[in-house]
Amino acid sequence: MDCGILVSKTVLLLISLIFWAAGAALAYVGSFVINSYKTFDDFRVDKYTVIPATIILGLAVVMFIIGTIGCCATLRESKIGLGFFLLILFLIFAAEVAAIVFGFIYKSRISGDLEKPMIEVFEKYNGDNSESRAVDYLQTQLECCGVHNYTDWLKWQWFIHNHTLPLSCCKANITTCTIDHPELLNKSGCETKLEQLLQRVLIYAILVILGFAIIKFLGMLSVCVIGCRSSRNDYQPLYA
C-alpha cells in the first residue's frame, strides 16, 4: 500500500477514535448527572435540571455517529462518506480557530474587565451574604486581600463598622484580623492573582484547542490525499 495513503488513513482512524473517546466521556458525564438526579428525586428536584444532561447525552450520540462515519468512510474509501467527514472536520476546525482568536482577544482584556465587578462584590461584603462567601473563598484560595491590596478594606463598610478585616485576609487561623499585625496579612491584591490564574487557564485552553485544530487540519489533508488518489484508482483498502 502507498505510504501516503496508509498514513492518511491512520490519521483519519485516529481522529475517529478521538470522536468515540469524546462521546464515551460525554455519555459518562450525562449518565452521572441523571443518576445523581434520580438519587435526590425524593426532594422533588426540578426536572428541568436534567435538560443539560440530556443535551450532553445527545452530543455523545452525535460524537459516536461522527466517529463511525469517519471510520467506515476511511475503511470503505467512500467518496460521499469522506466528503461528509471532511465537511464535519472543516466546521469543527473553523470553530476551533475562532475559539483561539477570541481566546487571545479576551486574554488582553482580562485585566480591564475584572477590576470594576470585583470592587462591586467586595463592597457588598457583610460576612453573611453570597458576596461575602465568594470574597472569602477567593481570598483564601489565592491568599490575597482586597482588590489591589489590603488597604482597600479601609474604605469599605465592613472595616468602617467593625474596624477589622475579614479573617480570610490573614495567613493564619486567628480570631481577629486587623491591620495592627501586617505580618499576618496577605498583602497581595486579588485582582492581580485572579488575572494571572485566568490567563494561565486561558493559555492552557488555547494550547489544547490548538492541538485539536492541528489534528483536524491533518485530517482534512488526509481526506484530500485519499480523495485525489481515489480519482486515479491508485490505492487499496486499509485491510487489504
UniProtKB/TrEMBL annotation:
Location within or outside the cell = Membrane
Q: Where is the signal peptide?
A: none
Q: Recite the UniProt keywords alphabetically.
A: Disulfide bond, Membrane, Transmembrane, Transmembrane helix
Segments spanning the bilayer are 12-34, 54-75, 82-106, 201-226
Q: Which SUPFAM superfamilies match?
A: Tetraspanin
Disulfide cross-links: C145-C169
> Which family does the record claim for this protein?
Belongs to the tetraspanin (TM4SF) family.
Q: Which PANTHER family match?
A: TETRASPANIN, TETRASPANIN-36
Write the protein's name. Tetraspanin
**Which source organism?**
Pangasianodon hypophthalmus
| Taxonomy of the source species | Eukaryota, Metazoa, Chordata, Craniata, Vertebrata
